Amino acid sequence: MGRRLPRRSSCGAMSLETFSLAGKVALVTGAAVGLGRAMALGLAGAGADVAVSDVNVEGIQDTCREIERLGRRSIAVTCDNAKREAIMALFAEVDRAFGRIDILINNVGAGARYRPEELPFEDWQRVIDISLTGTFLCAVQAGKRMIAQGTGGSIINIGSTCGMSGMGRGNLPHGAAKAGVNQLTRDLAVEWGPHRIRVNSIQPAQIATDAWVNGMTSMPWDFQAFEQHLLNGIPLGRLGKDSDLVGPAIFLASDAAAFVTGHLLFVDGGNLALNAAGSITWPAPKADS
Ligand SMILES: NC(=O)c1ccc[n+]([C@@H]2O[C@H](COP(=O)([O-])OP(=O)(O)OC[C@H]3O[C@@H](n4cnc5c(N)ncnc54)[C@H](O)[C@@H]3O)[C@@H](O)[C@H]2O)c1
What we know:
The protein is of the alpha/beta class and 289 residues long. It has a single domain (20-268), classed as NAD(P)-binding Rossmann-like Domain (Rossmann fold, 3-Layer(aba) Sandwich). Helices cover 40% and strands 13% of the residues. The protein is built from 8 helices and 7 strands, in the order E-H-E-H-E-H-E-H-E-H-E-H-H-H-E. The protein has helices at 34-45, 57-69, 84-98, 121-149, 172-192, 210-217, 223-232, 246-253; strands at residues 25-29, 49-54, 74-78, 103-106, 153-158, 197-204, 264-267. The protein has a 7-stranded parallel β-sheet with strand order 3-2-1-4-5-6-7, with helices on both faces. Helix 1 packs across helix 8. The radius of gyration is 20 Å and the shape is globular. The chain binds nicotinamide-adenine-dinucleotide (NAD). Nicotinamide-adenine-dinucleotide binds next to helix 1 and helix 6.
């Protein structure tokens, strides 16, 4: 007797409803400003109740109010992701307020921009603590709860293209931490697949958040020339916007991505697809051609 083939699924039965997050509870870390705030509001817009955390107290209170204005429940919890006790307390707050968690967006990240040979050890340690260890601790706290609930879940770790290839210009600790986040993503996807907990990562590049622009304009190079250099490496021809991460985050959080796990999703305008030699390109097309 041969093995029985699995039953065929019905084709084309999927609807936009599959992207809905109604009835789900999410936690977004680092949601006071920038990408975290945009994704928290995006999840709420798709129907989720959303807890938000950050060290920026005013910022998360504002995000929390915006989520409530969208008709969803929210709490704002002050949490320094470099501190294990603070992360434990954050999840205890989520338990008290919602009694469950279905989605975690592990968004907090930090950098320390030095030449490698001048990087103070304390800065290396701080970046690893916040970006890698903090991401791991949040994932484990969420994963434990999702396993106990028995209803699966979605964990989305925010990585970076600088964890995929060398970027230079002081990105060493940031890149090393994000490369660790990528492997954390793959290993947790494998470990927790049997619990229907999907673990994926979004890899942004050159998203012009306020913090990113402030950081880049304070560096010892001409910003306009630097921006043009970046644009030469982005086939879609523009820098990213906060809102560019919202659709990918809703997709990965939702049942539309039910069979997607261990995936690193580039949201980089094609930056990583391009060989550096390709940044010398055809002249821009004429407007009337
Ligand atoms: N902007 C980009 O181009 C870009 C590119 C690649 C990856 N990323 C990643 O995306 C994520 C968000 O980036 P962003 O550009 O929105 O940054 P951002 O600086 O605008 O926001 C980061 C948020 O994290 C909070 N935060 C910082 N340290 C914290 C800590 N120890 N504990 C709790 N909260 C803390 C900040 O207060 C802030 O609200 C980060 O993980 C970053 O590495 C961003």
